[in-house]
Amino acid sequence: MDHSHRPSSIVHHQQFMNTSVVIPSYKRQAALLQTLQSLQEQTTTDFDIWVADNAADENTRGAIETFNKTAKVPANYLPEPRLGVHYARNTASKAAPGELQLFTDDDMTFVPGWVKAYQDAFTQNPEIAAAGGPIHIKYEVTPPAWFTDFLATKAVNPFGYLDLKKPLFVSERGIFHSGNMAIRKSVLMARGGFHPEATGNIWVGDGETGLNHAMWRAGDKIAYAPDALNYHHIPDFRMTVNYLKRRQANEGAALAYNAFHRKNLSNAQLLRYSAKLAARFPRHVLGGWLYDGRTDTRSLLIQLRTAEVRAQIDYAFKMMRDPKFRELVNREDWIAE
């Protein structure tokens, strides 16, 4: 059932909202423990934590059990055997009791007032359905010069950096990133949950962007909460050309998902989509590999566009070959599973 076209009829009366922090995790115990420790340093303890262990790992369970022995705010462990970050987020959201749900990732840390900033924003602005906050980047090692120079062009945003440099405001066209967002549980359920994103090494869809768009269609109010700042930690293996290419290929898959979702396209239509892309970007389909590994800005842009275009074409052919994948792309409600 498609919930995204329902008018926004959810009325919020709470003066105080129970709060749950949801963290999907996938085999990154050290980073996850850093995130959990940062949450212990919040100015409030009036929240609970839910870790959704994607493709559940006993090492993660054990690390959390050890952490909880000294934690001010212990983490609830929730195994999610199905591979896919959307499964982890949606499953944890249903299990977590908080009406205000804060979503982040397992490689984030926070300013001490992060939780309180969202609690205050929703309490003082009861019309808010969801909110996003700024995300700053924290490199774990000094990045190479070519890397920072390229990111400075703002041609890509691979790490979700966000800072609108504005005071709190509320809009029907607001945005949020899954690494730093808050949403009323009732709204998330009504809008069908998070769309698919990464499933193992396969990028399926548009994740929180699809949820964001569903909320726009419903007329939900979305806020920007500037005091809810967190930091995305970037290790050295993400500061490479190959990593940027993989990220841009994921963007291509998300573009394909947007083009195909809800459309029920035939194989002939999918083939025409691929042919039009190939005709529009022949150099990227046939010869982008000539620039592989180069780090000047022009060569990087060509490599990333090549990765994006090829990912879109591969996505279309996967839909033609795989009926289960086609069903996945056309699914409307992700929270009901």
Task: Provide structural commentary.
The protein is built from twelve helices and 13 strands. With 337 residues, the chain is of the alpha/beta class. It has two domains: 19-238, Spore Coat Polysaccharide Biosynthesis Protein SpsA, Chain A, CATH 3.90.550; 241-330, no CATH class. The strands form three sheets. The protein has an eight-stranded mixed beta sheet with strand order 3-2-1-4-9-6-12-8, with helices on both faces. Strand 2 (48-54), helix 2 (58-68) and strand 3 (75-80) form a beta-alpha-beta unit. Helix 8 packs across helix 11 (297-321) and helix 9 (267-280) packs antiparallel against helix 11. It is globular and about 55 Å long. The chain starts with 18 loop residues before the first strand and ends in a 7-residue tail after the last helix.
In short, what is this structure?
By secondary structure, the protein is an alpha/beta fold. It has twelve helices and 13 strands.
